[in-house]
Amino acid sequence: MAVLDALHAWLTWCKGPPDWIVKFYHAAMMKLARGEALTLDAAFGIKPRPLGEHTDDQIERNRLRPFIVFEVEALKQQKVPIRAACDRVGADINHGGGYVKEVYYEDASAELREMLRAFRVRRVLPKT
Q1: Same-domain check for residues 64 and 13
Q2: Is-contact 35 76, C-beta < 8 A?
Q3: Is the pLDDT of residue 128 over 60?
Q4: Within this chain, do residues 74 and 99 fall inside the same structural domain, yes or no?
Q5: Dihedrals phi, psi of 95, to nearest 5 degrees
Q6: How many domains does the chain have?
Q7: How far apart are CA 124 and CA 101, in angstroms?
Q8: Are 67 and 93 in contact (CB under 8 A)?
Q9: Is the predicted pLDDT of residue 125 greater than 70, yes or no?
Q10: Are residues 38 and 101 in the same domain?
Q11: 0.85 cut: is pTM over it?
Q12: Same-domain pairing of 70 and 98
C-alpha cells in the first residue's frame, strides 16, 4: 500500500516518479499480467485486514493518512514547528492538531513519513 501511496504522492506533488517506484509498480503489474497474482492486492502484497478492524474511525484515519503525512511533512520542510503544522492541517480537515499528530506518528504512517523525507515535498495542486 505504501508504494501506491508513494506513486500517488509523487505524481501529485513532484515530477516523474523515482526508479524504485517505477520498478516496484512495473513488477507488480507484470505479476498481474502473467497471472502470477490474481488480484491487485496480491500483486502489490496488500494483506487482508483482520475482522473487526473496519471501524469508521480507522477507515477515516486511513483515508486521511496520505493527506496528513504529506501536508505535515511539507510544513516541517518549511521549518514550521510540528505543533503549528498539525494545527494547520487539522483545521483543513476539521480535526484538532492532536488528532493530526496521532495519525502522523502512528506506525501505519512510518513508511510514508520515511519515504517523504527522501525527497522534498512541494504542493503543485491548488489547495481545495
Answers
A1: no
A2: no
A3: no
A4: yes
A5: -135, 160
A6: 2
A7: 24
A8: yes
A9: no
A10: no
A11: no
A12: yes
Closest CA to 57 of 110, 108, 3: 108
Residues 70, 103: one domain?
yes
Distance between CA 18 and CA 7 in Å, rounded? 9
In which domain, by residue range, is 116 found? 54-128
Arithmetic mean of pLDDT, 98-107: 95
Give the CA distances from residue 28 to residues 3, 11, 18, 37, in Å, rounded to whole numbers and listed in that order.
Answer: 10, 18, 16, 8
* CA atoms of 68 and 85, how far apart (whole Å): 10
Find cell 480507522 and name the residue. 58
Using alpha carbons only, what angle is made at residue 91 by residues 14 and 4, rounded to the nearest 5 degrees? 35
Of 47, 65, 81, which residue is a domain's last? 47
Residue 67's pLDDT is what? 93
Residues 60 and 29 in one domain: no
pLDDT band at 17, cuts 50/70/90?
A: confident
- Amino acid occupying residue 81: P
How many Cβ atoms from other residues are within 10 Å of residue 102's Cβ?
15
